[in-house]
Amino acid sequence: MLSHVLRRLAASLPVMGFVALFVFGLLYLAPGDPAALMAGDQATAADIARIRATLKLDDPFPIRFGNWVWSLLHGDLGLSLFTNQPVAKMIAQRLEPTYLLMLMTLVISVAVALPIGVIAAWKHNTAKDRMVMVFAVLSFSVPSFVVGYLLAFVFGLTLRWLPVQGYVPLSNGIWPAVRSLILPAAALGSVYIGLLARITRATMLEVLQQDYVRTARAKGVENRMVLFKHALKNCSVPIITTIGSGVALLIGGAIVTETVFAIPGLGRLTVDAILRRDYPVIQGVILLFSFMYVLVNLLVDMLYTVFDPRIRY
């Protein structure tokens, strides 16, 4: 088990190195002078010179990249060109709402998608199965921002059950923070629910045809035990893979969802940085999201060995 973890960690290091190289090279992907692009059309020569001096654009690329990586290893992501604040501090201030939003989305999605996927497989080719599939197709097809506006109109403006904008910090209480993120998490998880429900149904249909399931039913084991203890556990690997891969959907969807619901998280920070051409902030956020995605996939690999011990060998 330990050797497997070490191998996966070693395999993740080149990936993060390539990601760091790509993120750093964002400045050079656009044509023209990077300093002039970041300064904008109304910038003066002094503004462009200041940006060049701040980012040390006159140094050779290998030297700049080496210094940047060395700063990263010490937790220094540079300074924002717009606010002149440390990028690491700006990101730290926005971590809480984004991480809590993604966590709530995962919990809601898994809690909804797994049961309905199992029920659809159990009631294959019945009205319940068709209803679940229609719901999954609709939730997967409708963009999350459209779902967000609909939920805000129904539960926020019409029924007035939940807030439609802003975020309440955890320091003000767990329930107020969770309540402020229920609608955004439901909107962000709509696509995720459809994807996970369809994968669960497909894998469950295959497992339910296995001999050991028929044997368990022949012995009189009740359906709930057959479905959730025997069948669901043995089709957990593709489901876990889908959950891990879906983190990319959550990262991309969080940017749009936070903009719709005016949540001061990393998504809003990314949008503001792009509009201001604040490259150090953009680099820091992309690097953080990439690291998080690699970490989630590493965790998924570790979970494989828990649900299927054969993978250890």
Automatic annotation (TrEMBL):
Protein's name according to its UniProt entry: Peptide ABC transporter
Compartments, as annotated in UniProt: Cell membrane
Record carries keyword Membrane: yes
Principal place of residence: membrane
Membrane topology classification: Multi-pass membrane protein
Family indicated by similarity: Belongs to the binding-protein-dependent transport system permease family.
Superkingdom of origin: Bacteria
InterPro entries: BPD_transp_1_N, MetI-like, MetI-like_sf
Organism: Bosea thiooxidans
GO cellular component, one term: plasma membrane
Domain ABC transmembrane type-1 positions: 95-304
SUPFAM superfamilies, A to Z: MetI-like
GO function terms (MF aspect): dipeptide transmembrane transporter activity
Membrane-spanning parts: 9-30, 99-122, 134-157, 177-197, 237-261, 281-307
Keyword annotations of the record: Cell membrane, Membrane, Transmembrane, Transmembrane helix, Transport
